[in-house]
Amino acid sequence: MSIDRRSFKIGLIAGVFLLSGVLIGLLFGLRMDWVGPVHSQPAAGAPALPVAGAPPSFAPVVKAAMPSVVNISTTRVVKNDMQSQVSPFFNDPFFRHFFGDEFGNRFQIPRDRRENSLGSGVIVDAGGYIVTNNHVVEKADEIKVSLGDRREFTGKVIGSDPKSDIAVIKIDAKDLPVIPWGDSDSLEVGEYVLAMGNPFGLNQTVTLGIVSAVGRANVGIADYEDFIQTDAAINPGNSGGALVNARGELVGINTAIFSRSGGYMGIGFAVPSNMTRKVMRSLIDKGKVVRGWLGVSIQEITPELQKSFALKDTRGALVGEVVKDSPAEKAGFRSGDVIVALDGKAIDSPSALRNTVADLPVGRKVELRVIRDGKTRNLGVTIGEQPKDLAEAGGESAPAETDNTALAGLEVQPLTADIAKQLGVPADLRGVVVSGVNPGSSAGATDLRRGDVITEINREPIRSLADYQRVAGKLGRDDSVLLLVNRRGGKLFIVIKP
């Protein structure tokens, strides 16, 4: 009996130990599940999984596109306007008698000097046509083109277009590697792009980035801007190189960077391939770039102008001036019209209208939707050819009783024939001349300048000083003022807020 009790106790103790071990094992297993299989290895023969978020390899794209990117080095001779000799005494016969004729030549300043620059280019035709930036080859006396296989050629400028900063050069070669054209209009923000070129003279370098923005205008680089903005590094020497998409297609020509220090700051600009291709074809086929022309000067619609014209938003292009005998004048356009669509396509900004019209073929008939005096109407116009040279779009003081209005701090005087001639405005123009603007006034906070000719106030014509004083005298203290001014022959609207 005692033995059975002892056996029972031993069994009970063993069971307790066994149960404790099971419980400890379960707890340890749960702890391991919380931590996770940090050191677990995949089973033999299992496929390795790619690292999440890793970018794809662009090696095949670079291998295919890079041979079409070339190095362009230019040389030009700069005339030195300085006197060719250090001192007139070197030419004096008495001086030469003692020191010899050659002594003075040792101190001569060279009349000419040679300047060298580097850039990039892209082969777009197997017969030797290369696209680059105009500023890369501008004023060059000699152009050398180096290919990726180290062959060198002399380049010849076929044509250049400063307005888009595109140029086409030609080398005497055949069966060259060509990069395919891509559709820049289909680019999306966030898409991968590669910038290829020769930064700092380093032959054939590639950088990776994304499209930061499209349709960038008003950058101040060229007259016609529709830039692709990218953070792919574009450094000195990259100008004229290729901007390539993930499919190895040419979507842009690297042009410029935004920099406050001279170094790369993550913002680069490229001319879209669609614009580049049109300019190139026109330069090759016609020797010049033929652009469509409407014949209006246009400007952005600011919130102040939106309010003055009672517009729903700031989209569109405000017509400041209609050129005489232009397609726009013949179609019935007026100053103050707001162009909001062309052939049903919305026009969001003046740059959009400018680029769209420039791409249209001469002679094509289009329909423009405009807002005039709060009402929408359609005007049909036949596109003309842009003139070679476009004009810039752009007594005693007699201030009116405007101390308590938005015109306070503005001084004007009558417009005479002599003043009109000096200002470069039409002789038959009527208005008053801005002779002074107080920097601390409401007018001083705008773009209004001395020499501007005011021809309208709040859409009322101003033909004389009396008109100015009459209209200005009706202004209230809290009234905003809409001015139409003529600046060196070009018209623009300016809003002055009280």
Supply the key terms.
10 helices, Thrombin, subunit H, alpha+beta, 498 residues, globular, 27 strands, seven-stranded antiparallel beta sheet, Pdz3 Domain, six-stranded antiparallel β-barrel
Describe the structure.
The chain has helices at 2-35, 59-65, 93-99, 134-137, 273-286, 303-308, 327-331, 350-359, 417-423, 465-473; strands at residues 69-79, 112-123, 129-133, 142-146, 152-154, 156-161, 166-170, 192-197, 205-216, 227-230, 242-245, 250-257, 268-272, 292-293, 296-299, 317-322, 338-342, 345-346, 365-372, 375-382, 384-385, 410-414, 432-437, 453-457, 460-461, 481-487, 490-496. It has 498 residues and is an alpha+beta fold. The protein has 4 domains: 62-170, Beta Barrel (Thrombin, subunit H), CATH 2.40.10; 184-286, Thrombin, subunit H; 292-385, PDZ domain (Pdz3 Domain), CATH 2.30.42.10; 410-496, Pdz3 Domain. The strands form 5 sheets. A 7-stranded antiparallel sheet has the order 5-4-1-2-3-7-6. A 6-stranded antiparallel barrel has the order 8-9-10-13-12-11. Strands 15, 16, 17, 18, 19 and 20 form a 6-stranded antiparallel sheet that branches. 35% of the residues are buried.
